[in-house]
Amino acid sequence: MKEEKNIDKLIRESLKTEQPSNDFTSKIMNQIKVADTNQEKAMASLLKKNTLESPSLNFTARVMAEVEKASIKIADEPIISKKVWTFISIFIGSIFIYVLLTGEKNTSSSTAFNEIIKKWDQLLTSSLSFDLPEIIISPLFGLSIFALSSLLFLDYYLKNRKISMTI
Length: 167
What we know:
The protein is an all-alpha fold. It is built from six helices and no strands.
């Protein structure tokens, strides 16, 4: 242990702190100032070479015109195509004619009209050899079909109406 103390003492004595010169701090500060001024000069020359361009006077108008061109356009396709509308109208028309021809005959209507209906009834019933279920020939079914077709027509009309909207 004594030896260790002696070694520590020897090491401490051999190590003496250096004393900087009196103008050490000012020399370091001058070097930092010179480096800063060199960096500022380099930055100034860089900025002069690469100056920022200012946009033209109509820059905003041009950009907004491009944005309007790129905006999403709504498709003008109808939900129900013309072929489907044709099929629906033929189907509803055929049901309507069938209900008229096979429904109850009103005795107060003219006999000529009744004879025409009877002829058409015989013609259609002889060519059509099937009976429709009772629900199809009920007035409620006809009213439901009429309401559905009216709503579909209204939807089609509203979708195809030309309205100019600015967004």
